[in-house]
Every structure is written in structure tokens, then in C-alpha cells.
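seq:
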Amino acid sequence: MDVAALEARARPLIDSTAFDYFAGGSDDEITLRDNDAAWRRVRFLPRVLRDVATVSTKTELLGTALDTPILIAPMAAQKLAHADGETAMAHAAAEAGTIMIVPTMGTVSLEEIAATSDAPRWFQLYMHRDRSLSSDLVQRAAEADYQAIVLTVDLPVLSNRRKDVANRFDLPEGMMMENLAVSIDSMHGSGLGEYTDEAFDPSLTPEDIGWIESLTDLPVVVKGVLRPDDAAIAVDAGAAAVIVSNHGGRQLDGAIASADALPAIVDAIADRVPVLVDGGIRGGYDVAKAIALGASAVLVGRPMLWGLAIDGAPGAKGVLDELTSELARTLALLGATSVGRLDRSLIA
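struct:
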């Protein structure tokens, strides 16, 4: 799958302001570019003379059996890419046998997604200053049979997203962040930035992981960790899994690439909880690299949006299918019969 070609096909199908919102990063976009480049720097050391007549991409994550270790990352405002938005993405996840992480800032409510798709689903949570709102979101997710809460911790304040500010990014009339029952509009800078600064809680601490766990029996996954010590703190506070992430290059510019951060975090906590990773995953070979470096699974974001824009649910599923097919081919070429057979001995 040529992601650059996929993006080029999607671009004319998405409003230019929305496209900049999806594709852009923060400040000079150094981390955005390095996320992709870091996976290119990783090299394989394949085995040969292994029987790879049959390979499997199946795995299990927090008790859920999956056909592929490729999850759908939480991405806001998916109706900007396609009229069916998050509903179509959920259908793609269900058909591909994987997990969709449903965003707080979604343009379809978490209940509607649950009612229209039987995909395994986790709910991504931004902690709000109004803790009653955060509590309500967690309880709504539990009542709608979500399997985990994904607490995003790398957005105490919104970064300087120059394209969004220049475009005065907001949602078109009639479109809302349905989980929050709010519209996003702006008279000056980015409406999203103004909402984030007003509503999101910058005082987040490890104790908030325990607070979320007190609201529900659902496991809490912590997303947005780049340091081994922070990963250990999250696990000590009760995290059931950790996602290595720099927010797709959309928060602190100049932050380490996810691929570069992954090995040390795996060494610190992988014997305790699963470690996942996102940022710059653009092919099945990148998925294999991530798992060989110790990740249990990966999250994919922007390519899913391009597939969604091109053909709704079938387009998004097509991306998942192609990535999984590439992963299976890479397994065979590495001399591994399953994702469980991937380890660091396969990395040069």
C-alpha cells in the first residue's frame, strides 16, 4: 500500500481546512516527519530455512481476540472525512476483526457507534476540568459495553498547530462533537484550541488513573507516553497498558519519534503490561518492526482517514486488510509463523 498515493487520492475529497487539520502537525512539524523516518531507520535481520507455509496475524489484547494487531487510533471529527464518520470506521473495525478506539471529540456519539457496530471498542478520554463531565463519559462508555478507557495524557495544553490557526479551523455548521454536545467555532484562532484551553484539565496526575478506575471496572490504558519512567509511573498507578505516542506529531514538536522511544519503554514495563505504539506506521513491515521491538499491537491513524474519505467503511477496511496482508507477507519473509514469533533478534 502506497500511503502517499492514498493520501493524494483522498485530498481532493476532503475540505482543504479539514485536510490540513488531519494531515498537519505542530510548529515546524519536525516530529511529524521524524515519526515516519524513524521506522525507515529500523532494519530487519531475517531468518531463512524456516517453514512459513502458514502464517498467522492473530493476537490477543486485554482479553480480546483479534485477527490483526493493527488497531484504529482515536481521531476526532471523522465526519470531516466522510459523511458516515466514526460509524463507518467502526464497521471497518468489526469486519477486519480489530479494535476501534472511539474519540472523545467524535462527530458520532459513543452510544450510536455501539448500537450500530459489534466491533470491539475502547473509549478515548480527555480529562476535562469539569470532572463530572469526565465521569459521565466513563460511565456512558461502560454502559455501552466498551472494553477499556484510553486516557490521553500528552495534551495538558494544545500545541501550536499553525495550519489550524491560519485556517481558523472549526466544524461546519450542523456538525458537533456529539459526545460533548458542543460545536467548535472560532472568531480569531483555532476553535479547537480555544475549546481545549478552556475545557481540558492541565492538572492531570497519576492519581487520576486510580480515579477513573474507581468509576468503572474497565481497564485504563494510558496513551501519550515517551519516557520509561513515566511508563512505570503509569503502571504503578494502575494502568493496564501503555501506548507509546507523541500524538502523531501534533503536540510537542521536536519530541522523540515513537519508534525511537519504544524499546526503552518495552524494557521498563513490558513484563508487567502490554505496550502499544502509534505514530508513522505506514506499512505492514512497520507493524512487524514495532512488534519485534516489543510492542503488543500498533495504532494506525491518518491512513485510516484517507481510506475512509475514499470509500467510507469499505475504504477504511481496505486499508486494514492491506496492512494486515503486508504484515503476513513480512512475517513469512522474516521466517516467523506468527506475530508471537517476532522478537528483537530479527532487528539488525
